[in-house]
């Protein structure tokens, strides 16, 4: 199997990838970035675990490029394959990954007890590829994503032989992969690795900490989040390390796949629309109201939420702010799943306000697209947000984002304050601090903007004209890879 001709080869290492397996934004990034990088002369293979959904999604049986007699408890093999237009290396290890459902948790919702070995195996396989121990040509750069791939830079650093350069990307610092120190030997790490300048983290083994400590470069998914995580409030205990390594820390904002997210061609919408021809949005709004049991009112300010229902996402604040939202005559459609108390809260709110609030507990792509296409505004009141993708989709579809001014939300939404409106440059509404009072103020301000139809239409055009593609981020990643590899630009 051959890759497209390119000046630089990169191995991406990710525990999920859209459209094969997805629990969050990591999958979207892993699935969309390779195509954008190809335009920059970067050839990407992605190493992913051999979950059933990944093996089923492969276009052919693939080529076995390496075999492990025993990899943390059983035989395994690396299979080079293609799926959904992606060049993959699949770690086919049935004893670790032949499990249906969520890739990280069992049917009881608890983490699989062998997760440290499952994702150490992913990192170990990445190291084998990086060191040229397989039939694949070794890459110039190995790019590890989140804690599940965090041991990749460690295995490469401790190999004691020439190795490719490494990049560690943090998609959410809150998830760190910490495991008992007794696993050091069983994970195949040398004794010297258990040190403050190695994998040791407060007496445990830190997978993410290992990657942050030992990678040649660190990236995270927005410039503002890169700054925030160097402080104690957002640093999640790793701020000291990130301050020390700030010279190699880069904030590169995410993009979205603008072919998947395109209102002009979206099969999930009743009618196509675009910034130049927005009339089809009315049909999406009516369909959204029907889907969520909201009153059919073409003039209503309909808010959407597409989110995990969690404390991080600030959805408890929205529950408290519902009286303000309802007092403006607005409607609300909520799609998501998460913490039981929040699920119950939104279900109860929908039952108490039929026709005004609708709630679907769960997730499906078609409904997410309909919310983006039919809502007038999208609420994202996160307490912290490394980047966020839902607000990028909202901009693309003309659902004005109402966001807390943190992380990637601050980097991607231009607040429609009085001066911005006068200059014609706003794309949404931002608020700070992340409190109920500030959110209530943002909802009131949004209602006032919506009441001024010429202003709202101008803001919608601005939003839909925003470049939310991977074009600019891919250029920055390509420049970073080339700088690390010492290749000419």
Automatic annotation (TrEMBL):
Superkingdom per UniProt: Bacteria
Residues holding ADP-alpha-D-glucose: 22
Keywords for the protein's UniProt record, in alphabetical order: Glycogen biosynthesis, Glycosyltransferase, Transferase
Top-level enzyme category: transferase
GO biological process: glycogen biosynthetic process
Domain (Glycosyl transferase family): residue spans on this chain: 290-440
Pfam entry (one): Glyco_transf_5
GO MF annotation terms: alpha-1,4-glucan glucosyltransferase (ADP-glucose donor) activity; alpha-1,4-glucan glucosyltransferase (UDP-glucose donor) activity
Stated family: Belongs to the glycosyltransferase 1 family. Bacterial/plant glycogen synthase subfamily.
Official protein name in the record: Glycogen synthase
Natural source organism: Methyloraptor flagellatus
